[in-house]
């Protein structure tokens, strides 16, 4: 048996592991194999995948398998997760800033009553995290 094969109909490359062929995430285009995962913005092969994207990955693996496979097979999963990470971080920091300003959690409060500042800031962060989870991560 051949170590790698290319499906003539779809152009996908498969690698023999044990006694089964598994997709490598590469596809033939214009007679050449395309790279597995390359970030289009800066050409790096490993885009940043943080905690938000890891949570989303765990979620789509468990509850949205078709989406996961749709992204995994053509090698688009890492780029998708990097975008999710960026969106989630931006939303989180924006919401924390807005809530802390609205509720008066300022540096002056931090100087005057540190424990109250910590309590309020933890509350703000927890609510912001919940918002990000509901709007981006577990969507």
Sequence-ordered SSE layout with sheet pairings:
Layout: E1 4-6, E2 12-17, E3 20-29, E4 32-33, H1 51-63, H2 65-72, H3 77-102, H4 107-112, H5 114-137
Antiparallel strand pairs: 1-2, 2-3, 3-4
Helix pairs in contact: 1-2, 1-3, 3-5
Task: Report on the architecture of this protein.
It is a single chain. The protein is of the alpha+beta class and 139 residues long. The chain folds into two domains: 1-34, no CATH class; 35-137, no CATH class. It contains five helices and four strands; from the N terminus they run ββββααααα. Mean pLDDT is 84; it is low at 37-44.
Features:
5 helices, 139 residues, single chain, 2 domains, alpha+beta
Termini separation: 42 Å
**Strand percentage, roughly?**
15-25%
Number of domains: 2
Rg on CA atoms, Å = 22 Å
User: Averaging pLDDT over every residue, what do you get?
Assistant: 84
Largest sheet: 4 strands, antiparallel
What topology, given as strand order, has the largest sheet? 1-2-3-4
Write down the overall geometry. rod-shaped
Number of helices: 5
* Helix content bin: 55-70%
Secondary-structure content class: alpha+beta
Pattern of helices and strands: EEEEHHHHH
Number of strand segments:
4
Please outline what is shown here:
The chain is an alpha+beta fold and 139 residues long.
């Amino acid at each position: 048996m051949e170590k790698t094969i290319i499906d003539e109909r779809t152009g996908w490359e498969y690698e023999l592991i044990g006694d089964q062929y598994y997709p490598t995430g590469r596809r033939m285009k214009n007679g050449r194999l395309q790279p597995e995962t390359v970030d289009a913005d800066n050409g790096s092969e490993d885009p940043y995948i943080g905690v938000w994207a890891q949570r989303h990955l765990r979620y789509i693996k468990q509850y949205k398998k078709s989406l996961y496979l749709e992204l995994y097979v053509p090698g688009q999963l890492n780029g998708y997760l990097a975008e999710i990470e960026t969106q989630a971080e931006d939303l989180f920091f924006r919401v924390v800033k807005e809530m802390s300003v609205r509720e008066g959690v300022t540096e002056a409060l931090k100087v005057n009553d540190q424990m109250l500042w910590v309590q309020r800031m933890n509350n703000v962060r927890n609510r912001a995290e919940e918002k990000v989870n509901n709007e981006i991560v577990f969507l």
